[in-house]
Write a structure and sequence with these properties.
By secondary structure, this protein is an alpha/beta fold. It has 15 helices and 6 strands. The model has no long low-confidence stretch (mean pLDDT about 90).
Length: about 300
């Protein structure tokens, strides 16, 4: 299996599509936002034209407002990979959701801790009333390693406390890994930060010009219970613009700033994984490197 990873706007989709076309592959998205239907522009889903006839699994899985967890992703992605292997193809993963990728590649055991809506609602209320520090302190007392991994991220704190409540175990123990039965080559796209920053600004501008505001309005109208925060950067800001709380220029500037910050967090996450081979974002060079590697593995 091959995984093309890296920060947003580094060119992962183009490289993964080139690899899948030339290596008898099929794409599997590793994006926590592209699982939501109707959020095409703001999540930068690959278009049919870009895919050029390729299938891409794990796009458009649930409607906005429908809960979707890391365990859901792991289960569906594992099944998709097995189907691709069964058909004789090469799974080519592409995306920047590091938590999803690690849960999949490391085989985290998440299935024994299904979400409890009532318990989650209570935690979310505590988060609103007490803030993330209170949940982080509770998790620190239960499992310092899990607390360090959560890094005060509200979603990770809530999920870790859910796992503890459901299993009675510290989340780190409950997540003890069962390695999957396939090997993975991880390629990280190495793009200078200054280039990423410019690409991010240009992409946000192009998405707004391409109908992103109208997409947000449609989602709010058709799925009033949808959490704009869950859909990702830009959706809350454009919702605030539609409500008259931000100008379009302010929404754009805030989105650009947050996406740039997110790209840096992605880099930190992936650079901490020693399995990732960092290469320039050159599709031809990467595909040739992968082709040679696959031939060597088959010969051995």
């Amino acid at each position: 299996m091959v995984a093309i990873v890296g920060p947003t706007a580094s060119g992962k989709t183009a490289v993964a599509i080139a690899a899948a076309h030339r290596l008898n592959g099929e794409l599997v998205s590793v994006d926590s936002r592209q699982v939501y239907r109707h959020s095409d522009i703001g999540t930068n889903k690959p278009t049919p034209k870009e895919l050029g006839g390729l299938a891409c699994r794990l796009l458009d899985v649930v409607d906005p407002g429908t809960p979707f967890t890391v365990a859901d992703y792991q289960r569906l992605a594992t099944a998709a990979i097995a189907e691709i292997h069964h058909s004789g193809g090469l799974p080519v993963l592409q995306g920047g959701s590091g938590l999803y990728l690690r849960a999949l590649l490391d085989g985290w055991n998440l299935g024994d801790a299904p979400p409890d809506p009532a318990f989650r609602a209570a935690l979310e209320q505590r988060l609103d009333e007490e803030g993330p520090d209170a949940l982080a302190a509770e998790l620190q007392a239960i499992d310092p390693e899990a607390a360090d991994r959560a890094q005060r991220n509200p979603r990770r704190l809530i999920r870790a406390l859910e796992i503890h409540a459901a299993t009675g175990l510290p989340p780190t123990r409950a997540r003890a890994s069962t390695p999957p039965p396939w090997s993975t080559t991880l390629i990280g796209l190495d793009v200078p930060l200054a280039v990423l920053d410019q690409r991010i600004e240009s992409r946000v501008t192009a998405m707004i010009d391409g109908g992103w505001v109208e997409e947000v309005a449609r989602i709010r109208r058709e799925f009033p219970a949808a959490d704009m925060q869950r859909l990702g950067h830009g959706y809350p800001e454009l919702a605030a613009h539609l409500e008259g709380r931000l100008s379009l220029a302010e929404a754009r500037e805030s989105t650009v700033r947050q996406v740039r910050q997110y790209a840096r967090r992605q880099l930190t996450w992936f650079r901490a994984d020693r399995r990732v081979q960092w290469l320039p974002a050159d599709p031809d060079m990467i595909v040739e490197r992968l082709r040679v590697g696959i031939m060597s593995a088959e010969a051995s």
